[in-house]
Amino acid sequence: LFLLGLAIYVITTATKTDQKQIGADLKNKNMAVRKRKGGKNTAATAATSPSGKATEKVEKKGPYTSYVNQFVILAALLLPWVFLLRVPLSALGLERETVYTVEEIFTELASDLKLKNLLVRTHYLNSPEFWKTVAALSTPHVFYFIVWTNAEAFYKLASKYLRFLGEPFEAFAKLAHLIKLFQIIVVVVWYCTVHWFMTTSVMHKLVAFEFIFSGMEAPQFILGVELFLLGQLFNGGVYSAIGEDGVYYGVRLHRTIPWVFDFPFNTVPHPQYLGATLSIWGAFVLFVTQSHVDRGIFGLTVAMTCFYAFSSFVEEYL
After folding, report:
1. What angle in degrees, to the nearest 10, is found between the helix axes of 2-14 and 67-86?
2. Which residues are CB-contacts of 237 (< 8 A; sequence separation ≥ 6)?
3. 31-40, 186-195, 303-312 — which one is most confidently predicted on average?
4. How many CB atoms lie under 10 A from the CB of residue 245?
5. Bond before 88 cis per omega within 30 degrees
6. What is the pLDDT of residue 318?
């Protein structure tokens, strides 16, 4: 994973385009199209640079996909699985003397992730506690929806009443962080309030968490860690590419945000929300137990996935 991050950094640095220049050219092209007289609908329009000199015709060939980035990520994700199929874990000092087969990998994942019970044990859907938790986890996305669809109203409100938090986008960011903290607390409290956890000593709790990882088979550990870290890679890439003002709706809160064509936007769609979703599923893979399956951990994970899909839809079409 370290090599994955290093490879992406080298690739994106070597192929980095002049984002502001491209953004200016595309903007000039769009303005030229709008000003076009008559009924002609030409396929390309000559653009001018900020200096006024004519430049080459600019065509927006979205989504600016980098197949190199995609290949590097896919190769890095496949490498540990190839290792499992080719090298016995005893080479790493672990007990297993033989290599895995594809069938064994799928069998162990099905067992460790309790796949047989995920869709069968759905009695938690009748539990008010489950739906209260779902409602609590939805709060960030409700907040995002309100601000995105009422950005001008929020801008005026923040400029008048929330100036102590900074600019409107900074006020939005701080409020979003606060709500996200509430969401994390909800998840931790829900996870830790199984009957066994509530009725045992702190030492027993620590031993139990140690057992979760010490008793974890290699396929479960690899899948969980890959999903979680890949999600964080996309999340970190978004913050690095467009900054906090870009992440927290600066484009709608009177901030000038340049259009970005580099990683991670040239690799996957909606990298921030996709990254968050991947990390959530990674945590699910790492921390799933039979007790939590019975209480609805699968349902909560699906619900959070739907929330991020909803936020992606809002930002794409509204």
Report:
1. 160
2. 8, 263, 264, 271, 275
3. 303-312
4. 19
5. no
6. 86
Q: Which of 253, 258, 308 is nearest to 280 (CA)?
A: 308
Q: What are phi and psi of 79, to 5 degrees?
A: -55, -45
Query: 92: pLDDT confidence band, cut at 50, 70 and 90?
Result: low
**Ramachandran region, residue 294 (left: φ > 0; alpha: ψ -120 to 50; beta: rest):** alpha
Residue 249: per-residue pLDDT:
92
Sign of CA dihedral 122, 204, 225, 88: negative
Amino acid (one-letter) located at 245? D
CA–CA gap between residue 3 and residue 10 (Å, rounded): 10
Residue 168: how many CA atoms within 13 Å on its side-chain side? Answer: 20
Angle at 234 between CA 212 and CA 220, to 5 degrees: 25
Could you write out the DSSP letters of every residue in 265-277? TTTSSSHHHHHHH
- In whole angstroms, what is the distance from residue 234 CA to residue 264 CA? 6
Following DSSP, what letter does each residue of 287-300 receive, concatenated?
H--HHHHHHTHHHH
Question: Cα torsion for 77, 83, 89, 91, to the nearest 10°?
Answer: -120
The H or E element spanning position 75 is: helix 67-86
DSSP-derived letter for residue 279 is H
Amino acid, res. 148: W
Please state, in angstroms and rounded to a whole number, the distance separating the CA atoms of residues 111 and 116: 8
pTM: 0.78
**What does DSSP assign to residue 260?**
-
